[in-house]
Amino acid sequence: MTTKRTSRPLTLRDVSEASGVSEMTVSRVLRNRGDVSAATREKVLTAARTLGYVPNKIAGGLASQRVNLVAVIIPSLSNMVFPEVLGGISAELDDTGLQPVVGVTNYSPSREDAVLYDMLSWRPSGVILAGLEHSLPARAMLDNVGLPVVEIMDIDGDAIDTAVGISHRRAGAEMAAEILAAGYRRIGFIGTHMPEDHRARKRLAGFEEHLAQAGITLAAREYYQGGSSLQKGRELTERILAREPELDFLYFSNDMIGAGGLLWCLEKGYDIPGKLGLAGFNGVDLLDGLPMRLTTTDARRVDIGRRAARIVAGKEPRPENGIVALSPTFLPGDTIRKG
Amino acid sequence: MTTKRTSRPLTLRDVSEASGVSEMTVSRVLRNRGDVSAATREKVLTAARTLGYVPNKIAGGLASQRVNLVAVIIPSLSNMVFPEVLGGISAELDDTGLQPVVGVTNYSPSREDAVLYDMLSWRPSGVILAGLEHSLPARAMLDNVGLPVVEIMDIDGDAIDTAVGISHRRAGAEMAAEILAAGYRRIGFIGTHMPEDHRARKRLAGFEEHLAQAGITLAAREYYQGGSSLQKGRELTERILAREPELDFLYFSNDMIGAGGLLWCLEKGYDIPGKLGLAGFNGVDLLDGLPMRLTTTDARRVDIGRRAARIVAGKEPRPENGIVALSPTFLPGDTIRKG
DNA sequence: TGAAAGGTTGGTAACGGTAACATCATTTCG
DNA sequence: CGAAATGATGTTACCGTTACCAACCTTTCA
Fold first, then answer.
1. What is the pLDDT of residues A198-226, one digit of tens each?
2. Coiled-coil ranges per the record (chains A, B) (predicted)?
């Protein structure tokens, strides 16, 4: 049973009076800072617990000019990729006293500005945000904040402070190489039409460049709007194959639509990977367990989160050039012919 | 190009000096509060923009005793269900000036305590947290905070202040009713073994009670540890059917493992829904596009988020009895025989 | 024309903590 | 045994903003 509570919120002073020591000493006890005798510590803790006192970080932060928050700004929570990055961040932040605060932009630059402004107004001790492309106002805010700023996911471009991620151009190129090595030649692409998804764009660019070096151009492409789902993958796969029946490979911009395409092809009796190969992107293990494992690229999401968090937390130094490059990993799966 | 910046962070005073008015007036302009002439407003905004001033909510919050944050405490981000709830919350909070701050507990009561304590120390203007079961310290903290506290997802139990959700007992019972009505009799259950997932437990209880009323008991059950995935669904389905080949229905505790089970059964050539029926729970539309649509119950995730947010934001009054009961909706899909 | 009313601006005192330093008691050690 | 080091506690001055009230300047209208 807690004590009855007046309407006035509790402050250090209440704990101080209840335990017969100064507010300063109470503060020291509650933060485990400085020397306090075991006896007073005990008195104070008992009093605090009895009253149900919860420290006020607003006041504390103002006084100390330090806030244990890390702003994390990501485009979306509705596919599996960013929650996994978050998992990495939060795991690595766990023993640092730092706490992530998440803001979602829905891939909108103006929302990114707004979210960033809002987060900075809390004076966090670091910022982690997705991508290298930001509006002018956003860059202006970040250029001189005097905090660690880590841009994640992508390293194809210039970082404001530090970037942690993979090269999506390279991921695209490597997938192209694997596909060509496996002997496929009439290749189609299915992806989302989101001008703000720069990583998908760069992946496709790297993919096409590599094809071009082998004298090959994409035989077909199909774009869609909105979120990715199995259903979307089915529809687009049907459409692209109706239009270009001669295709022997489909490169999807993510695993979810890739899986939809795979299911559709299997139902229609396509010979996979013999006559038709399929590949996605991300390497989400949620989809393990489909009739065949989809060929894909592991985007190193958890690692990206971890490394970014380590840098913000000061567990690991910012590299000289500001770039932490992780390697996208090709996962052969079952939907590409074995070399 | 922004102006060069000294190391000292900007304050209202800087903007005040740059625009030739008092700090108080600058504050009024930036908050759109009180009367300010158009001319000064313009001057101030220009100065603020030029300097790149970002208000300090720490100081502002302390002075005004108001903070535009809503604490949202959920068990997990790694399945689709809580992100969807979050989507509902954030959509409804969008035009209120309130901002959700998310804490994740990983289904651990002690982490819930810690996260709650931490969030309360920021003096948010409301709390939304999953479930009705909380530790004693957590209840003590919440009983007298003097803020709107909304417990979500579940309404089978006592709310601290307000609860918004569905009855999982009812959801389970209704699914049992549908299954029996469709003529299935030898029913197996596959679910996660998480003592802290009270909703899954209540669902199963409601399910079994309803079966019991018809004189039927579960013919088999299979539990697993850890996250849900298609793969897990496959394995457990294989196991339970190996053990009890006579089963004619499988009730899964969520759609993801249900989908895994479905894929496995289809591969093995089971006659679905003729000889074997399957059902999951949640109604995640991510999985639309499987070879058959899994029978399931829509848990009303987005609505729950919206209603909870509306109550916290004061857009909608707290109901007399403190309970906002939404109806779980049966989604027949293709994996149960039509009545 | 002068008082009232309303719009616009500024001064001052909080808000609830913490940093930095001061103070006093106790221990350590040459 | 006295000086210096160390431990334990308190005092004071902020941190950057907003609430509240006072002051001033117009405009309105009897």
1. 999 999 999 999 999 999 999 999 999 98
2. none
